[in-house]
């Protein structure tokens, strides 16, 4: 049996090390993540525009809108993989160009398969009870990092390695996330407001409930609201996302060093 030796990572010291890495990055982090968030904004606006063309047709019956929603989500997730590759490079003192943002497309199939597995497992846990879903989220937190480290492995192997590397680090990852949680919630504040005003009442009507919130609606078109909300998210995310991404990469590297992946035994040569 392999021996794992997870180590305690002092968060304040680690965040100072992350800031030092970001300050010495050859490609400026703010510019790199501004490019990422700008592309995400454009993708979101195009997706919303296509959906508006469908009018009041239900999403599942409007094939162009459904295609736009699925495609936009896949594109955003693949761009996210590019930010993870950038985070690993910055933490390791390596150079990562702006083109790194698109490197996830070179192993897109494996990334999509891993994301589907993650959503299936975490979603099942959340459906049963909230706590199992949160637990599984941290068990497989490093799955995309595993593909970034070795794009040649399959999605099941990436999940297996993620589970091994997360051993002894799940609580530390949770504590690190809490450190960034106020920034994450602030960046999502317009989306949360939109859900409270529009989405939750729509769900309530679906189940025959007469539930509304007396919150003022924003006097903008749906496309205008999306643009304002996305720009707000971009501005806030630039304040924390570079450090958050590199911090995740640093935890992954530490876990990879202390929790080695067991190698299959070699057959004796004849």
Give a verbal description of the structure:
With 270 residues, the chain is an all-alpha fold. It has a domain of 184 residues. Helices cover 70% and strands 0% of the residues. The chain has ten helices and no strands. The mean pLDDT is 86.
Quickly list its features.
270 residues, 10 helices, 70% helix, 0% strand
Query: Beta fraction of the residues?
Result: under 5%
Using only C-alpha atoms, the radius of gyration works out to: 21 Å
- The quaternary state of the protein chains shown equals single chain
Silhouette? globular
Task: Give the end-to-end Cα distance, rounded to a whole number of Å.
Answer: 26 Å
Q: Which H/E pattern describes the elements?
A: HHHHHHHHHH
Category by helix and strand content? mainly alpha
| Number of helices, counting only DSSP H or I runs of 4 residues or more | 10
């Amino acid at each position: 049996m392999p021996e794992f030796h997870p180590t305690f990572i002092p968060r304040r010291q680690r965040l100072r090390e992350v800031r030092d890495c970001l300050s010495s990055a050859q490609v400026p982090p703010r510019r790199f993540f501004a490019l990422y968030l700008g592309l995400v904004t454009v993708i979101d606006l195009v997706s919303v525009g296509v959906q508006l063309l469908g009018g009041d047709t239900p999403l599942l019956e409007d094939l162009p809108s459904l295609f736009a929603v699925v495609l936009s989500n896949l594109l955003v997730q693949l761009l996210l993989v590019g930010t993870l590759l950038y985070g690993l490079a910055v933490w390791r003192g390596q150079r990562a160009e702006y083109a790194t943002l698109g490197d996830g497309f070179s192993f897109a199939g494996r990334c999509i398969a891993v994301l589907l597995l993650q959503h299936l497992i975490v979603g099942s846990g959340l459906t049963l009870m909230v706590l199992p879903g949160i637990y599984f989220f941290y068990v497989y937190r490093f799955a995309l990092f595993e593909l970034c480290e070795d794009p040649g492995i399959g999605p099941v192997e990436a999940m297996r390695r993620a589970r091994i590397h997360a051993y002894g680090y799940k609580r530390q990852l949770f504590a690190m996330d809490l450190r960034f949680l106020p920034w994450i919630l602030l960046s999502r504040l317009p989306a949360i407001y939109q859900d409270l005003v529009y989405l939750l009442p729509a769900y309530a009507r679906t189940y025959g409930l007469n539930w509304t919130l007396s919150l003022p609606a924003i006097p903008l078109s749906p496309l205008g609201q999306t643009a304002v909300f996305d720009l707000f998210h971009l501005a806030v995310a630039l304040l924390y996302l570079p450090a958050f991404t590199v911090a995740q990469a640093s935890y992954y590297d530490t876990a990879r060093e202390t929790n080695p992946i067991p190698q299959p035994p070699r057959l004796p040569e004849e």
